[in-house]
Each structure stands twice: as structure tokens, then as C-alpha cells.
From TrEMBL:
Residues 48-381 form the PRISE-like Rossmann-fold domain. PANTHER family: 3-OXO-DELTA(4,5)-STEROID 5-BETA-REDUCTASE. Gene3D superfamilies: NAD(P)-binding Rossmann-like Domain. InterPro entries: NAD(P)-bd_dom_sf, PRISE-like_Rossmann-fold. Pfam families: PRISE. CDD domains: 5beta-POR_like_SDR_a (cd08948). It comes from Bimuria novae-zelandiae CBS 107.79. This is NAD(P)-binding protein.
Length: 384
């Protein structure tokens, strides 16, 4: 029976991979969970080890001396302030880790390495992509595009696997609905806290949609972190998925709601990713090829810093005995970006389905399940 090695084990995506594999002990008798911190207790088939992927290869090799496994899931991530730093740091974390696998001899047993990346693959952080997004879309390379650390990580992975005769698989989730403490991209916590604090301030019945009218009336494709974990467990063992990349979204597409008046507007990249294929798609000069924007009717970063908002949170947190740090740690900028985009994101699951994937997750159910996790961890009040 295979063993697994999971990096980023405390993160929003890695944590669920650890728990999903651990539920199937006969199939996965040993799961090595790796991260700098250990935030919770694990089932008996999970062994947590400390690793700092930015430390020296010798130090890491000592930490991982006894770690062996056939399937490696790389879900570690460190957010940096610039795309170049993301490229450098996240690329180095992956290549350091792969080097350590060779140093300790663990690489001998490895069959496949599964790398978790995301829909930034399609430049969704830069503007409108070509919809629906398919895995064979052209990579946005060249001087007109900022560095994309997913390309660096995938190139590192491809080269390493061809040198060592190993298989790889890459996943592209988007706008993840999941639970993890101190996560850099967690829209569910910020969304729930926004609604709660507005209610506390007496505006619960007239909750203003903080994002853009375009997002409200348009479409997004979310990924439930639990569904992504099930996908990873499936794809690791699917022979035909060797050396392939897959979109991983819930499988439904959600229209959102909206209210008037913008509080902030910011421009994304000068040209949106879809512009690259404008001629091929007959879209030259079309509205969607113009510069994309993030329009927030309520600028959530500014909102979260208002005195009345902070006072309402303090009141609510005291009354309900909540984890007070949750508000400050909530990713207001990320939620503002997600809800404020003025373009659609429709991500195709056709490729995975052709390979045999049948998973599906209702997005509203994903949110409910995460809100229950947040209740249980003292971030949200218990439902009365
Ligand atoms: N969250 C989203 O909405 C979303 C959407 C699409 C794609 N993605 C992509 O999914 C991937 C995983 O992101 P995530 O959101 O799951 O990240 P996350 O929740 O921020 O978790 C990051 C993980 O990496 C570990 N880590 C960070 N620095 C480390 C270091 N120096 N050494 C060892 N471990 C380290 C963290 O654990 P410790 O801090 O304990 O070390 C944590 O377990 C990234 O490529 C991200 O871009 C995320």
C-alpha cells in the first residue's frame, strides 16, 4: 500500500489532502504531513514532521531522514509582495524540497509528484481570460506579462521528473472555499465576518454586496478544498493522469448578487489574458479584450479598518467568545479582489471528466460546510 508525503499540511488545500488520505487507512497506511507549524492533532496514520522549505538542504534532510512515500503532494505556499518574489521564493521552496528527496534517498520510492497550483495559470489575477478555461491554453510568458510563479514551479517539476524518471500531475483550483488558520487566501472567513459585523452594526437586512456589479451578475468557478483533496487522492493513482495538468473546480457555476455605488476601482494588467487569443477567437476590439478592473462597492480593506467596524467586531467577539484575531487575519484584500473582478471565470472540467473523474460539489454546500468548521473553531458564533 502506498505512503504519501504532503507539504503545506496546515494550509487550506494541503490540510484537506492530509485528512482525505487519512480517512482511507487501508489504502494509505502512512501519510507524512510536513509544515513549519503543527496546528492540530492528526489521526494515527498521519506522522507530522517539521520542515522549513526556505532553510538549508542539509537541515531539511535531517528533518526528513525517515520520510518515505510513493506519492508526493506539494501544497506549500508562501505569499510574497511581488510576483518576482513569488517566483523566486515558491520556485526555490519546490526545488529545495526535490533536492532534499534526492539527498535523503526518498526519491527512490517516489512514483508521482502532484503539484498544487491554481487558476492564476490562466492569468485570472491580470484580467479577463478566454472562457471557458482549458488546460491547453497558452502560457502568458514574455515581457508584457509579470512573472507567474506557477510556470516556474511547473518547469522545475517537469525537468526534475524527466531527469529522475518520475511522473508528475498538476492541479489548477480556483477561489478556494476551505478552512485553515492564518491562510493568505481565504475568502470564506472574510466573507462570513463581513456579513456578521454588518449585522452587528444593524445592517443585516440590507447587506450590501461589496464587489462589482459585473461579478454579481456574472459567473465564477469555485473549488471546495475537500473536493480538491478527493481529486488529488484520485488523480495520484490514475495511470492516465501521468504528466498531465487538470482544472479542479466544483463543477457548477454561480451567479452572484449586487447593489449600486462603487467605493473603489483599480486597474488590472494593461491587456487581459484573453487579448492573446483575440484574433484566433474573432474578439479583436471586443469589450472583453479591454483592460479589466476590480470594482468594489465596499472597499473591504478600508471597511475592515473603520473604527465603527472594529468596535462592532470587538462587541460581537466578546459577547460570543470568538477568536478575536480572526478579524485582523481575515484576507480582506483577497476577498475584495475576488468579488470585485469585472469579468467571468468559467473553468472547464471536461478534461478531468474524460479521464474518469466524476466528483462534483455544490458551491453553496461548500460554503455551509466551511462555516460549520469556522463555528467549531470559534471564528464564527454558534448558530442558535
Ligand atoms: N487559497 C486559495 O484560494 C487558492 C486558490 C487557488 C490556488 N491556490 C494555490 O494553492 C497553493 C497552496 O495554497 P494555499 O492557499 O493552500 O496556501 P496556505 O493555506 O497559505 O498554506 C500554505 C502552506 O504552506 C506551508 N508553508 C509556508 N511556508 C513554508 C515553509 N517555509 N516551509 C514549509 N512549509 C511552508 C504553510 O505551513 P506553515 O506556515 O505551518 O509552515 C501551509 O501549510 C498555492 O500555490 C496557491 O497559490 C490557492
Amino acid at each position: 500500500m502506498p505512503s504519501a508525503i504532503v507539504t503545506g499540511a496546515t494550509g487550506i488545500l494541503g490540510r484537506e489532502i492530509v485528512f482525505e488520505l487519512s480517512k482511507h487507512a487501508p489504502q494509505w497506511p502512512t501519510i507524512h504531513a510536513l509544515s513549519r507549524s503543527k496546528k492540530e492533532d492528526y489521526p494515527s496514520n498521519v506522522i507530522h514532521s517539521h520542515i522549513d522549505l526556505t532553510s538549508s538542504a542539509d537541515g531539511m534532510a535531517a528533518d526528513l531522514a525517515k520520510v518515505r512515500g510513493e506519492y508526493v503532494f506539494f501544497a506549500a505556499y508562501l505569499q510574497k509582495d511581488s510576483e518576482q518574489e513569488n517566483w523566486d521564493v515558491n520556485g526555490a521552496m519546490l526545488s529545495n524540497f526535490l533536492e532534499v528527496l534526492t539527498k535523503t534517498g526518498a526519491i527512490e520510492r517516489v512514483k508521482r509528484i502532484i503539484l498544487v497550483t491554481g487558476a492564476k495559470q490562466y492569468g485570472v489575477h491580470l484580467g479577463a481570460p478566454k472562457n471557458p478555461m482549458h488546460e491547453d491554453a497558452p502560457w502568458l510568458t514574455g515581457s508584457q506579462w509579470p512573472p507567474n510563479f506557477y510556470y516556474n514551479q511547473q518547469n522545475i517539476l517537469h525537468d526534475f521528473c524527466s531527469q529522475h524518471g518520475k511522473e508528475w500531475t498538476v492541479t489548477y483550483p480556483n477561489d478556494v472555499i476551505g478552512f485553515a488558520r492564518g491562510n493568505f487566501m481565504n475568502l470564506s472567513t472574510a466573507l462570513a465576518l463581513y456579513a456578521l459585523v454588518e449585522k452587528e452594526m444593524g445592517r443585516g437586512d440590507e447587506l450590501v454586496f461589496p464587489g462589482s456589479p459585473a461579478f454579481y451578475t456574472g459567473f465564477d468557478s469555485f473549488t471546495c478544498s475537500k473536493l480538491h483533496a478527493r481529486f488529488c487522492a484520485w488523480v495520484a493513482l490514475e495511470p492516465r493522469a501521468a504528466n498531465e495538468a487538470f482544472n479542479v473546480v466544483n463543477g457548477d457555476v454561480n451567479p452572484e448578487q449586487f447593489a449600486p455605488a462603487e467605493a473603489s476601482v483599480s486597474d488590472l494588467a494593461e491587456k487581459p489574458p484573453v487579448e492573446v487569443q483575440a484574433d484566433e477567437l474573432g474578439l479583436r476590439g471586443h469589450e472583453v479584450t479591454r483592460q479589466s478592473k476590480v470594482e468594489q462597492q465596499v472597499d473591504l480593506v478600508n471597511w475592515s479598518q473603520r473604527d465603527d467596524v472594529k468596535a462592532a467586531w470587538e462587541r460581537l467577539a466578546d459577547r460570543e467568545k470568538l477568536d478575536k484575531s480572526a478579524f485582523e487575519k481575515a484576507t480582506w484584500g483577497f476577498l475584495g479582489f475576488v468579488l470585485g473582478r469585472n469579468f467571468d471565470l468559467v473553468i472547464s472540467m471536461s478534461k478531468a471528466r474524460k479521464y474518469g473523474w466524476t466528483g462534483y460539489q455544490d458551491t453553496w454546500d461548500s460554503f455551509e460546510s466551511v462555516f460549520e468548521d469556522l463555528e467549531a473553531s470559534g471564528v464564527l458564533p454558534k448558530k442558535s
